[in-house]
Amino acid sequence: MVYICKVKKSSTYSKSEKTKQFIIEQVAPIFNKKGYAGTSLSDLTEATGLTKGSIYGNFKNKNEVAIEAFKYNLSLSTQTFFNAISNKSFSPIDKLLSFPQSYEKRYDSVIAMGGCPILNTASDTDDTHPQLKKLAQDAILRIENALVSVLKEGIKQKQIKQDVDPNKIAGVMISLIEGGFMMAKLLDNKVYFNNSFKQVEEFINEIKQ
Predict the structure, then answer these.
(1) What's the whole-number mean pLDDT along residues 50-63?
(2) Under CATH, what is the fold of the domain 72-206?
């Protein structure tokens, strides 16, 4: 199960919670850019302006900080999509289109934070950090399951062609968007993401009933 970190209003935090949230927000981009192994204690103290004791007074260890940072980064990049998915006024087609559109809207901010946290964490921890890898896997599966559910509902409502394979379509949509992010980030050229974004939209229009 993936836990999406929702940012609460500062007034609802206790002093301890405010400190923890401050640390997470400051170090999240660093973990996303440098990865778990590449992020040092000095990176954390420099980013927060806090001492080692202050940081580890709020978190058990670097591992816990990294996990919370991933959850925070994940929320920033996926919350718009999940809000759309849960919007009862949206049709199944609207919900499917919200997937590429939500990533397109947040493209600049996601690139600024170092790229897609799921993609970054998956490649960074594939053979080195099972716990973070599991969180990345769960994140992808949560998106996939959400898309599959919407596709099935669209088929049931006869808005999507009856011969569509929901699992296949969901997998292709995710692969196109994640691949587009990877290419655009690697080559510093948004056109690769734009192409993927347009392809997913065309894909959705082709399966409409």
Answers:
(1) 94
(2) Tetracycline Repressor; domain 2 (1.10.357)
